Amino acid sequence: MPACYHQVLFFFILLALPSSNGIRNTGTRKVGVGAILNYNSRAGKEGKIAMEMAMDDFSTHFLGGPLLHLRNSQGDPLQAVSAAKNLINKHEVRAIIGMETWEEVAFTAELGNNSQVPILSLTMEFPIWASKRWAFLLNVARSQNSQMRAVAGIVQSWGWRRVAVIYEEVTLTTAGIFPHLIDALRKINSEVEILLPIPSFPSDNSLIESLEKLKRSQCRVFIVHTSLHLASSIFMEAKNLGMVDKGFVWIATTRITNQIESLNSSMISSMQGLIGIKSYFSHMGKSYQEFHSRFRTLFSKLYPNESNLEPGIFALQAYDGAWALAQAMYGTTNRKVEENLKNHVPIISKSGKWLLDRILQSSFKGLTGDFSFVDGYLVPVNIFRLINVVGKSYRELGFWSEGLGFSKDITKGSNYNKSMIIMGNVFWPGGPRSAPMGWKVPSNPIPLKIGVPANSTFREFVNVVDNGSGNEPQVHGFSMDVFNAVRELLPYDMPCEFIPVKGSYDSLIETV
């Protein structure tokens, strides 16, 4: 029997096993919460430290807090659901937080629903229908969908009319970005010309074949929305094929750029000229500065082989999510209300639905900004950073803000513009300072055939001169001069052939 059948059978056996129903009173025993992370990924490593820090900080401030039970899913959905089953049945956890991929979330959400235990997801690709399907599922990572309007802003800035989208063919949530991107592009009179799906682990031959197909097209503006490991393979092969060179444009979404610091120099060298959209969070403030200093110390001790010690957006969201869970369990949803928490025993006799509702009432200033929910969803991101890969790292270009546009900074009194030209020069693939056209001139273009009246009454506007001997007739006049002047201004080549048509204007129209 194939291995996939064993996995599916194992999954349904897990779901069939008895599980706890709601939150049970455990007397004075310390209340537990579960966390499921992929210790092999950068995000999982950051999340582990951040959650432990959140629980330690909560216990220090309020003289007590939940007991955190950590589990390693290794990025496998079946291991994630197995870990969740163990946490719920053996450790009687009141909620489970974590899971950076939608596959892990979806498997675990079904179990959470059956057990009435809240599942707090940390995936940034969370479909809008998910919470309606699973009542005990809540996403505590902010939606990144508005970044597609930032992408459209970049496209509009340089007058590109068509783009190609390279995406990871792994889950329906990836396709969830398309309505946002297509709508944003439509509003600026641009469109998606090519959708190129690529498997998470493609063979070298299939990846090369896909990229060569893209290279043969006229479109030269590529938007990449994949995981970091797949993006690394794409850019390495693209560089070998001469696609990270003059005339090409590469734009990467937050799925890639949020972890770009963890790439080595050879990977970075294959991304030269890339424009990246990166999640924004404030580096100012006492809370972040304290978190940043402690995080670096703990991360270096636990992962001494890691060169990048900086916390990313996943670490900050994991901290905020864990803090919100602890607060809700201990009877408050506001970080400022501390007097009721001192020496407070958590409310453990309530149901999972009660705890979920308490989390939804959260309202505090977190590391990622205001932590509160609107209609069941965490308030979304409305500011992004723009970066440009140059040399061994990247440089900051500026910011994009919802409703305001691009700017060099986001301080009070900053200047905003709908064009990113306000941010200064961009280093493009191949090194030119001037922006690429976004398209390739075809080697054998098919001319656009345009009918013109052969016997015009007003020859000052259109005058056809027959050179005889089978030569192509010459077309002159004011109308033709205006047409050709406008054609010269187009951001692409438009070869055309003028076809004289004898007869009335009606007969000319009928030939179209």
Note the beta-strand portion.
Answer: 15-25%
| Count of runs of 4 or more consecutive helical residues | 17
Q: Which consecutive residue ranges, at least 5 long each, have pLDDT under 50?
A: 1-28, 337-343
> Helix fraction?
25-40%
Rounded Rg? 29 Å
Structure description:
This protein has helices at 3-16, 42-62, 77-89, 102-115, 130-133, 147-157, 172-175, 178-186, 204-216, 228-240, 254-257, 265-269, 286-302, 313-329, 352-360, 478-489, 505-510, and strands spanning 32-37, 67-72, 96-98, 119-121, 137-139, 162-168, 191-198, 221-225, 249-252, 275-279, 363-366, 369-374, 377-378, 383-390, 393-401, 405-407, 448-453, 463-465, 474-476, 496-501. It has 512 residues and is of the alpha/beta class. An eight-stranded mixed β-sheet has the order 7-6-8-9-10-14-15-16, with helices on both faces. Strand 14 and strand 15 (393-401) form a beta hairpin. The longest helix has 21 residues, at 42-62. It is elongated and about 100 Å long.
In short:
The protein has 17 helices and 20 strands. The protein has helices at 3-16, 42-62, 77-89, 102-115, 130-133, 147-157, 172-175, 178-186, 204-216, 228-240, 254-257, 265-269, 286-302, 313-329, 352-360, 478-489, 505-510, and strands at residues 32-37, 67-72, 96-98, 119-121, 137-139, 162-168, 191-198, 221-225, 249-252, 275-279, 363-366, 369-374, 377-378, 383-390, 393-401, 405-407, 448-453, 463-465, 474-476, 496-501.
